[in-house]
Amino acid sequence: MVEMMHNRTFDEICVGDTASLNRSCTMKDVELFGVATGDLNPTHYSVESAERFAHQRKVVAHSMWGGSLLSALLGNELPGPGTVYRGQEITFLTPVEVGDTLTVSVVVVEKTPPSSVTLDCKAVNQKGETVFTGCANVLAPSEKVVQPRMELSEVALRRRHHVFEDIIARCADIAPISVAVCHPCDQVSLEGPVEAARLGLIDPILIGPESKIRSVAKECGLDLTGLRIVDTAHSHESAEKAVAMCRSGEAEALMKGSLHTDEMMHEVASRDKGLRTSRRISHVFVMDVPTYPRTLLITDAAINIYPTLEDKMDICQNAIDLAHVLGIELPKVAILSAVETVYPKINSTIEAAALCKMADRGQITGAQLDGPLAFDNAISEEAARIKKITSPVAGRADILLVPDLEAGNMLAKQLSYLADADAAGIVLGARVPIVLTSRADSAKARLASCAVAVLFAYARRSKGGVAAQ
């Protein structure tokens, strides 16, 4: 049934009329108020600042958040729709902490024709403490209004994109690494390494038909001064030479250009001349999801189509090693399936349980694992609580280990196109990190992929290898 709003006209209002509302203050209310007003006072966002500056044990809401409830009460109830706010005097007596519940009330104390109404105002918290007092003056409507209560648009908070900026910034004090750029023969694949070189992230070695590379650079206004070019006849030779340079140690990372991924990865996977190690090669998406409070890694969404249990052990360890490089000391790995219980007819649930036991036995190290977990339980603490899942991983996952490539690829792209996420990508498990770029990648994502490769290569150089590969 539709809820109706009724106002009270000037003629209907009597001195002594009252109205009230109750509202609990949440952290979301505080953040939304801050976004709307631009008030950045740290006492409203940090417990430490609230204790230091306001001597409160919890975050303190903006005083005018409570004052703004008067506007809601006057506009919705007394006088209601059609009210014009003219003036307000207010005295704040007690801070509003996140979690407080306010009862805000008004009482009519004076009427002045033709339409002026004066009301005393007061707010009391759940402890019976007076939060504020005041006096409001409004122009009451002269026309009777009865209308359905309006449904406002929902507003969702999301953090600003910052993950990629942070990753790139971490490379500021690291010397550029040499990167074999395989066949950069179109604008997208050439712009990325040239820009990364300009920012001091990498020292690219451009491997491909020199005449074509220079032609693309001229058409796009790219300056290749100081960049080394290794001339090849075609993309297959580009892949062979790029992989050979990485194998010999002349380059510390490999970057895909405009050739097909399969063509380059075929050379990477060669037993005799490639970059294979004892580890299974796998891909990791590094996601910056504005609606998620931490960096999110998704694996494998690009290399292993239907990985076996043994493959998943390596895929998981590769992602854990990358998480360590990115500064996540003890990453939480959620092993995804359609359900959160072991169900024999769904093989991914059995493999998830096995992977967790492998971690218990030290076959996978450096992380907390849990699974099977459905996607909602992996990233939402509320969903995990409702389903009574007790886990250090549920709702706080840093790494999502997907059942297969199809699931991972769809998940990463859904986050990119429906949740405004940015995605960088890197291939691990080979002798060097491999940057796989896509024509759809943003410039920032391409730079972030380079930066991730730089950090990973630097960590291997510094520690003699991130993991035993």
Tally of individual helices = 14
CATH topology of the largest domain: Isopropylmalate Dehydrogenase
Percent range of helical residues? 25-40%
In CATH, the homologous superfamily of the largest domain goes by the name: Isopropylmalate Dehydrogenase
Overall structural class, as computed from helix and strand content, comes to alpha/beta
> What's the CATH architecture name of the largest domain?
3-Layer(aba) Sandwich
Q: Could you describe the largest sheet, including whether it forms a barrel?
A: 6 strands, mixed
Shape: elongated
- Cα gyration radius (Å): 30 Å
The total of beta strands comes to 18
- Distance between the ends: 65 Å
Our count of domains comes out at 3
SSE topology:
Elements: E1 4-6, E2 18-24, H1 27-37, H2 47-54, H3 63-76, E3 84-92, E4 101-112, E5 116-124, E6 130-139, E7 146-148, H4 163-169, E8 177-182, H5 187-198, E9 202-208, H6 210-220, E10 228-231, H7 235-248, E11 253-256, H8 261-268, E12 282-288, E13 296-299, H9 309-325, E14 332-336, H10 347-360, E15 368-373, H11 375-379, H12 381-386, E16 399-401, H13 405-418, E17 422-428, E18 434-435, H14 443-463
Parallel strand pairs: 8-9, 8-11, 9-10, 11-18, 13-16, 14-15, 14-16
Antiparallel strand pairs: 1-7, 2-4, 3-6, 4-5, 5-6, 12-13, 12-17
Helix pairs in contact: 4-14, 5-14, 7-8
Task: Provide an overview of this structure.
The chain is an alpha/beta fold and 469 residues long. It has three domains: 4-148, Thiol Ester Dehydrase, Chain A (Roll), CATH 3.10.129; 161-277, Rossmann fold, CATH 3.40.50.10950; 279-429, Isopropylmalate Dehydrogenase (3-Layer(aba) Sandwich), CATH 3.40.718.10. It contains 14 helices and 18 strands. The chain has helices at residues 27-37, 47-54, 63-76, 163-169, 187-198, 210-220, 235-248, 261-268, 309-325, 347-360, 375-379, 381-386, 405-418, 443-463; strands spanning 4-6, 18-24, 84-92, 101-112, 116-124, 130-139, 146-148, 177-182, 202-208, 228-231, 253-256, 282-288, 296-299, 332-336, 368-373, 399-401, 422-428, 434-435. The strands form four sheets. A six-stranded mixed beta sheet has the order 15-14-16-13-12-17, with helices on both faces. Strands 2-4-5-6-3 form a five-stranded antiparallel beta sheet, with helices on one face. Helix 4 (163-169) packs across helix 14 (443-463) and helix 5 (187-198) packs across helix 14 (443-463). The chain is elongated and about 95 Å long. The N and C termini lie far apart (65 Å).
